Fold this sequence. Notes:
The structure is a homodimer. Chain A contains 9 helices and 4 strands, in the order βαβααββαααααα. The relative contact order of chain A is 0.16. In chain A, α1 (21-31) links the parallel β1 and β2. Chain A is globular. In chain A, strands 2-1-3-4 form a 4-stranded mixed β-sheet. By secondary structure, chain A is an alpha+beta fold. The first copy, chain A, folds into 2 domains: 4-86 and 198-213, Glutaredoxin, CATH 3.40.30; 91-196, Glutathione S-transferase Yfyf (Class Pi), Chain A, domain 2. Helix content of chain A is 58%, strand content 7%. The longest helix of chain A is centred in the middle third of the chain and has 31 residues, at 91-121. In chain A, α5 (91-121) packs antiparallel against α6 and α5 (91-121) runs parallel beside α7 (162-171). The interface between A and B is large, with 42 and 42 residues.
Amino acid sequence: MTPTITAFENSPDRGRGLARDMRVRWALEEVGQAYEVRLVSFAEMKAPAHLALHPFGQIPTYEEDGLALFESGAIILHIAARHAGLLPEDAGARARAINWMFAALNTVEPPILERETAGYAERDKDWHGERVAMLDDRVRARLSPLAARLGDADWLDGAFSAGDLLMVSVLQRLQGSALLAEHPALAAYVARAEARPAFKRAFAAQLAVFERSSR
Amino acid sequence: MTPTITAFENSPDRGRGLARDMRVRWALEEVGQAYEVRLVSFAEMKAPAHLALHPFGQIPTYEEDGLALFESGAIILHIAARHAGLLPEDAGARARAINWMFAALNTVEPPILERETAGYAERDKDWHGERVAMLDDRVRARLSPLAARLGDADWLDGAFSAGDLLMVSVLQRLQGSALLAEHPALAAYVARAEARPAFKRAFAAQLAVFERSSR
């Protein structure tokens, strides 16, 4: 059965590919699994039908054969476990790739998201500049060790994996800041991932939704 | 082979069970897997030998038969996948339990950790009070839907799972705030988990480390 995901009817990122359906679309493209998309408005996201799928009233959700999931990390792990292409076969390498998935979401993303949130929730405060400097340093404290670990490798641990997919998705939230450019190896890592045909297909698909909605 | 984890030689939480080795100890106790602990000082955590295991220089790490992992979520998933007791057998129920693991770490923990960080990193700022009010509301925006989903059930989805273990671990960070008490069902959920013999054994083990180190 073709899985169905949800995405913003009107993405606040204006098609820049930063909403979390992008990660799931990309994973589905990497493994060659067709999918359907149901677009939801902000009002629909907070209505009972959607809250039954996603208790926190967000996107994406994933539905397939009666199974419903709502965390992008869990959705991607579910896809990666059922198709070849996103996790190594070897058990140890597989555990390490999953380790990078959690590192992306629980160690690297939180300070990046905190910085992003400050950008809209605290922009008008007179202490905003002081906060941004603190937040930039917290992001740097994640990027430096990440760059050190990546070194001159293409991917974090052998072949491209769901760990790289999530890490790149998280780093893309720094687009437009100077922080990523402080580590050319990380900027190149993101560019390398964005050159993947599966990424391009997923990006085009989410952009098409935004372009239709903004006509 | 008995796995080895790392933990703080001198935990900054003074044995309150909030350091992330506690989650891993608890998972190991739930499945009945013996383990060894190597204590590391703050200096050792930032030294090359530890950074080779944990690129971000934190605890815990997990080593077993040549495999090394460093994210508590990934470690717990690894343990849960190899032993009975933390994930349901049914594939759908298993995917949903893993979904709650990611929800704990990527949706509920970030605002709780942000609030905790503000408590020590921004305490001396004259805008600290304004920030705390914002952060409390961000935490509330997670707790309300979580309480609504839990309802009057004992656990988030059927039997106790690794999803509950991580969700409770995350909620415990609110100890000493009034936020958890705003949702008696969530406070009872945490208390129910803390009454589990495996939790008690793990808590006692990490407390014993602190008590030895503070003699």
